[in-house]
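Title: Prediction job returns without error message
Component: structure pipeline
Severity: low
Priority: P3
Assignee: unassigned

Description:
Job completed but the reporter wants confirmation the result is attached to the right record. Sequence as submitted:
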Amino acid sequence: MGITDLKKKLKELDHKDLIDLIINLYQVNKSVKEQLDFHFMRHENEILLIYKKKVLEAFYPKHGDQFHLKIGKQAISDFKKLKPNSNPLIDLEMYYVECGVRFTMEYGDINENFYNSVAKVYLEAMKLIDTYNLYGEFRERAFKVVTNSANIGWGFHDELADTYGQIYQE
């Protein structure tokens, strides 16, 4: 069914039936619940903490010892769907990068795919910083990631430093 057909069907429902439908969706679909919570409550910081926890668990899972970058990137993607302001989104992306750098510092060299994933998220965050002119808010964190990655191989540090230099032009 397309959006036009959906609108027609929804207009046919009376107010009570529409509310019942939304409540049912809220109860059975986690993403609908998160979207509605975010829309009506706008407790962006509380919701951001939930997604930061998901990112952290992607690098440091409670069960097992294998990191799952896909889960961390999915958390970022799901958070984007909530249409947050730019600052919390950048914050979450920077947190992903910080977790990746910290993970490497704790466990040693990982692999090229790992570093490509983390560097890509760093680039996305830096583009948002540039787009929304948020240089001051994130300069320290963006630079710290670069300095903390100084001893990491696979060209990772160089890529982060290049990205930082392009945005902050230092």
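Comment from assignee: result matches the submitted record. The chain has a mean pLDDT of 91.
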